[in-house]
Amino acid sequence: MTEPVVLVLNSGSSSIKFQIVEPIAGHAVGSGLVERIGESSGHVVYDHPGGVIERNLVIADHTAALRAVEEVVAAAGRSLDEWGVVAVGHRVVHGGSVFSEPTVVDDEVVEELTRLSPLAPLHNPSNVIGIEVARRLLPDVPHVVVFDTAFFHTMPEAAATYAIDAEVARANEVRRYGFHGTSHEYVSERAAAFLGRKLGEIDQIVLHLGNGASASAIQGGRAIDTSMGMTPLEGLVMGTRSGDLDPGVILHLHRNAGMEGAELDDLLNRRSGLKGLCGENDFRSLLEMVAEGDPAAKLAYDVYVHRLRRYIGAYLVELGGVDVITFTGGVGENNPDVRRDALAGLGRLGIVVDHDRNESAEQRERRISADESAVKVLVIPTNEELAIARKTIALV
Ligand code: ADP
Predict the structure, then answer these.
(1) Residue 307 assigned to a binding site
(2) Positive or negative torsion for Cα 213, 187, 117, 17
(3) Which single residue of 82, 216, 267, 388 could bond 89 by disulfide (Cβ 3.0 to 4.6 Å)?
(4) Which residue ranges make up each domain of the chain?
(5) Are 304 and 274 in contact (CB under 8 A)?
(6) C-alpha–C-alpha distance, residues 231 and 214, integer Å
(7) Ligand-binding site membership of 282 (annotated)
(8) Per its UniProt record, what NCBIfam families does this chain match (predicted)?
(9) Cα 196 from Cα 190, distance rounded (Å)
């Protein structure tokens, strides 16, 4: 008997990422991407065990995009119906203060998500469009929303509160929410399982380093702090986002350079981080530039590592020491230099990375700390789609 499958959707403004996941077996049977929605030429790619299917066509809107998903999946031999899709899991970036758990979608949920859109104007509106379209095209199965913010709902008030006028903050829902929660939760559970320890008994730091990047402090399975805040801009240096910044910089740029909202948004979200410092946001290309002796790339790398170490230090103290530090995300999973430099010279704190284990290019879950290291250091590939599929099936 084949097991039920979940369709996982991550809808952006001009793209939809999708996976067909077998949540019990724990793997995807196919995954793909619809790109350039609403542009003059769109692109669909679907990767499945039998090969890769590609289509170039005009994709007018999200409805056309989802029809294209149905078409390529069927072209691979089995329609979504024939796969026996039992539910659709939607990734939603911002759940505000309202949503702390995965939730079955109904009209009220959609309304509430729409109300939350100002909190995540770059993400939530397209998430909502994706949900509405999918509900129309797949009306017979339940749809579940899984929030990037949910795992951090448990953060203590002291970690979630910005020290600004409390009335202004309340009126505008200004507080720290945290993001990448699905990944931090999944990776922390895998780390405990890898070590054969109970999640509730260990303290962890998880470093999710991808295009976006975030760190979290997790005490016995409960997140007590994370580096992203009200928006995914706060915290670590990212591909194109600044991470932490003196808020006075924004006031200064406004007063002295006449920068307004849209321009500041573009500066901080798309022209900062590694790209802002050296013109390159892809970490592999950045490393090549460093190897060629490019001083701007070297500085970008150093700023990136410096910020990362600052957060690791903060979370070591917040947790009063840790059992395990785990790297995940495209950079965290694949780049030994960042892992080495982030934890260099911490032998006195019981943190020692083993050179050969760190340099290994294996893709599986693994330990990279030395045998004598009191703190275990792990690399765990994240799998947000699987986590979303499992949360979805658990709910329906
Ligand atoms: P996203 O946040 O978009 O999901 P990923 O987690 O896939 O991103 O991470 C993308 C980043 O990982 C890119 O900067 C990419 O260069 C980097 N990356 C992927 N593979 C490697 C590698 N082998 N070495 C260094 N960086 C890598």
Answers:
(1) no
(2) positive
(3) 388
(4) 5-147, 197-384
(5) yes
(6) 12
(7) yes
(8) ackA (TIGR00016)
(9) 10
| The pLDDT value given to residue 107 | 97
- CATH class held by domain 197-384: alpha beta
In tens, the pLDDT along 77-135 reads: 999 999 999 999 999 999 999 999 999 999 999 999 999 999 988 889 999 999 999 99
Q: List the one residue out of 140, 35, 146, 134 whose CA is nearest residue 90.
A: 146
pLDDT score recorded for residue 122: 84
CA 44 distance to own-chain centroid: 22
Pairing of strands 103-104, 143-147: antiparallel
What is the CA 202 to chain-centroid distance, rounded? 23
Predicted pLDDT at 3: 83
Domains 5-147 and 197-384 share a fold: yes
The CATH architecture that domain 5-147 belongs to is 2-Layer Sandwich (3.30)
Length of the chain measured in residues:
396
Contact 84, 99 (CB under 8 A): no
Please list, in sequence order, all residues whose beta carbon lies within 8 angstroms of the beta carbon of residue 345, skipping any fewer than 6 positions away. none
Sign of the alpha-carbon dihedral angle for 74, 38, 132, 233 = positive
Q: Exposed/middle/buried for 146, CB within 10 Å: 0-12, 13-18, 19+?
A: buried
Tokens 């702390």 sit on residue: 100
Q: Determine contact, residues 6/89, Cβ cutoff 8 Å.
A: yes
CB-defined site of ligand 1, < 6 Å: 210-212, 239, 282-284, 329-331, 334-335
Task: Tell me the three state secondary structure of residue 22.
Answer: strand
Mean pLDDT of 385-390: 98
pTM over 0.90: yes
Task: Taking residues 200-217, report their average pLDDT.
Answer: 98
- The alpha carbon of residue 357 and the mean position of all alpha carbons in its chain are separated, in whole angstroms, by 26
Q: Which residue in 244, 87, 214 sits closest to 149, CA to CA?
A: 214
CA of 136 to the centre of ligand 1 (A): 34
pLDDT digits (tens, 9 = 90+) for 344-360: 999 999 999 999 999 99
| CB contact at 8 A, 338 and 312 | no
Tell me what pLDDT residue 280 has: 96
Residue 1 has pLDDT above 70, yes or no: no
